[in-house]
User: Which sequence fits this backbone?
């Protein structure tokens, strides 16, 4: 039996997701996502928000709505000190039209039927409510039960019930290429001591090199974007 994570552990994981260090192989994607989500949250009209976090075991983006929430509810299958309701995202035990904002970050790839999750999210959102979603399009497999990767056209199809959908790449092809090299090399470095050295030597160089090339080349090519952020309005 796995030991339940402590509040300190999940808080640290959430902080690293929102504000990743340069040693993180996913730094390029994570910092882009935080920036995109922050811009969308800043445009939300209300300061008295009912927020649902689907897959909210570590809640990295809760800080973005801090001070603007009336209630914040986290649903997840994994029990952590931050989870309020243990349930499947395909069957949310919540009433219709309850929430102003739903956050669902890096969850759909693990669900056999992502359309059912999005239908449930649509159901619990208030009219005019907002979904903040993030999904991978290209990355190494993280777990045996992963099912999917996503592209913009597929996302728009899955979210066709929503009144407005905006899909934004979390970096260009240049950033995607640098991040992929970094993530793959991190996998190949098998031993913990070697991985520790890699993440504090070469990983930051790949991250900074990718960011510098993206800025210098000023390329808008997104054919190899490796992750997408999505804003969907009901």
Assistant:
């Amino acid at each position: 039996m796995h030991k339940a994570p402590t509040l300190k552990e999940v808080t640290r994981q959430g902080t690293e997701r929102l504000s990743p260090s340069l040693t993180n192989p996913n730094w390029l994607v994570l910092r882009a996502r935080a920036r995109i989500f922050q811009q969308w949250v800043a445009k939300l009209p209300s300061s008295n928000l009912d927020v649902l976090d689907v897959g909210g075991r570590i809640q990295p983006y809760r800080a973005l709505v801090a001070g603007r929430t009336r209630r914040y509810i986290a649903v997840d299958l994994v029990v952590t000190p931050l989870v309020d309701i243990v349930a499947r995202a395909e069957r949310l035990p919540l009433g219709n039209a309850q929430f102003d904002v739903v956050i669902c970050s890096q969850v759909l790839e693990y669900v056999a039927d992502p359309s059912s999750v999005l239908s449930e999210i649509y159901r619990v959102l208030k009219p005019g409510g907002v979904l903040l979603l993030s999904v991978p399009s290209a990355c190494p497999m993280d777990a045996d039960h992963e099912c999917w990767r996503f592209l913009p056209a597929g996302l728009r199809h899955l979210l066709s019930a929503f009144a407005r959908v905006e899909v934004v790449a979390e970096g260009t092809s240049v950033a995607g290429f640098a991040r992929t090299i970094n993530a793959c090399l991190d996998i190949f470095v098998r031993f913990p001591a070697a991985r520790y050295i890699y993440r504090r030597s070469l990983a930051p160089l790949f991250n900074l090199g990718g960011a510098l090339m993206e800025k210098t080349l000023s390329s808008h090519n997104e054919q190899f974007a490796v992750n997408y952020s999505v804003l969907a309005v009901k």
Observations:
- Strands lie at 49-54, 69-76, 85-86, 99-105, 125-136, 164-169, 227-233.
- The mean pLDDT is 96.
- The radius of gyration is 18 Å.
